[in-house]
Amino acid sequence: MSYSTQKKILLTTFLFIPMLLMIMFLIYPTLRMFYMSFTDWDGVSKTYSFKGLRNYIEVFKTKDVWISLKNNGIYMVMSIIQNTIALILACILVSKIKGRNMFRAILFLPYMINSVAVAYIFNFVYDYTHSPINIMLQNLNLEPIRFLSNQHTVTWFLALISLWRYTGYTMVVYIAGLEAIDKELYEAASVDGTNALQKFFYITLPNMRKIIELNLFLSISGSLQAFVEVLILTQGGPGHASSTYVTYVIETAFSYNNYALASAMSVILLIIVLIVTYIQNLVLREKG
Amino acid sequence: MLKKKLCNIISLVLVGGLLLTGCGKQQGADVKTNQEPKQKIVFASNRTDYVNSVFVDYVKEFNEKYPNIEVVVDVQKDYDQALKIKLSSNDVPDVWTMFVNTMPKQQFMEANIPLNDEEIFDKFDFTHAFEGTDGKCYGLVQGVALGGVLIYNKAIFRELGLEVPQTLDELKTVGKKITEAGKVGLATSAKAQWPLMGYEVYTPMYFSKNPDILNSVASVKNPFTLDSPFGKSYMLLKELADSGIFEEDPLSADWEPFKKDFRDGKIAMAFLDATVAPQLVSDKVPATDIGIAPFPFDNDKNNRYIVYKPETALGISKTSKAPEAAKAFFYFMMDDKYVDYAERNSLMSARKDKTTNVPFFQELEKFTYEKMDTVPKTEETNLIVSRGQVDFSAKLQEVLTGRDVKDILDDLNKAWTKGQQSQ
Question: How much is the pTM?
Fold first, then answer.
């Protein structure tokens, strides 16, 4: 047996199990989801019929889908704010200030707590009667805040949880990027007499383009898929005021047995993520 | 070198062992008999709270009678979902708990054996609740719950010298007095959505005097108008919210804190099913201090109803590998343990030959009311609700946000029409 055949056999045997698992649990279900999105399957029946694009049309005609997408928009705005804060923090913490490692650790800590625990923490923080914030406000003779029961602000407060949780993580990625920039560039710029702002805009930002792109992709696609906080804290309420696209998909599939419609919604989500990423790449490329 | 290898192998085995320790069955209690078991059956239930207590005792008692049958109690927190998967993969538990309205008739007809020829069948009422399209019964009811009632804390009424309200006006004035005394008049737990079901399910029945009200509008175009029983219910919720007898911020009031507050004697009334009463008992609020009354949805004292609804039922799988054993356990639950199970759950007996003694029902005699039997949702209604994604409880939450009731009803009509059209 020749060396190359041996190599091929070895590679195939090594790859067989991971490939099999991937086909079974990722590729097949995804293809099946595409297929199901054109049917009227209710998740239980053994039979179903083809409905063409009816599910896709229905998704766009449903008011609650648009409310949910608008809420994802709020998450997206928050994710951009999150990136800005993270970049500023990273710039501060990459300099040689005292206790920087401690600050880095503290800021990274929220990311390490699991999301369900975070949701429960905020269930307390946002509680109308027991919230420490509201107790403080009441002591100052101010009106307590209806964090989760005001339909106009509830999503902002929920998105704030994501901001709190992921800023540390985004910051760490930025720090890694910042530390990789050649120090000599800054030294040369100093010799040329540039100030700190000029250094940031002409050296730091161009060198960080790839990292910013990555972070924005992660946070924007994350914000399109946000659901844990909503599911645990409000179940999309009051009414549908805080439901996100994914919680609406979950509700469609598991509360109303509209599996086919939920599949169509998932396919649309996939397309939205691709479009947003494409636009983002275009914008960043132009700037670069 | 060899030592190192040995060390590595031992540590690998240890780590593997540690990992596997967590792999034990978490839910479900295996109860084995002393003798070698000859038959094994699975009993599926949603009662996670019973798995280490009540069911263990039940199985023990059952095994005294039938030592050769091993009963595996399989409880699931998300019972409905877990069951759906089991049913669609033909892995039906031998004896399993069924809920009214949660699955298409076709499904339990495919899964279960008909029970009409069983000798205890004639002793049961409410057999229509689990009747298939062929007119046969596929599940027998474990007890009847009293739905849509006013649950109240007698101690608070005694303490403030108040009478249990019997009209809507009384409810508002009494509720106001209780709220002024620093307690909650009528709790909604609106954040959890489902506790608002009283206004979704029951008051439309009461206003229309028709337990079949939702099914009856299945083919009606835009049935949710302001003067319809549904519109009246939504307006009732708004009226009660405006009268200030609810929690300070109902949409922040969740279910678990509600139970705690009721047990601490901070809540006077709630509009729920009587089955939640056992969960509200505590040292401060003993069972004898919890009362149940008809809900005063209007000002006519003589126009009061309580909905009698079959709670859960048990059915026997068609595909059971040990049908005789399954039947024996079914009879044990539905005959020997019938009253015990029903009393534990504050249920009235659905058997003609047995009665239950539930402490919460003691004062119920004081009030006059008519019994209303529930009618399960028809296939058509279920389809409209699921295809149109008609979310009544979310819409009730919107009433509490202050949104105009007319707009809310318009949304419901749109969803209803969508459901009707996709039939």
Answer: 0.79
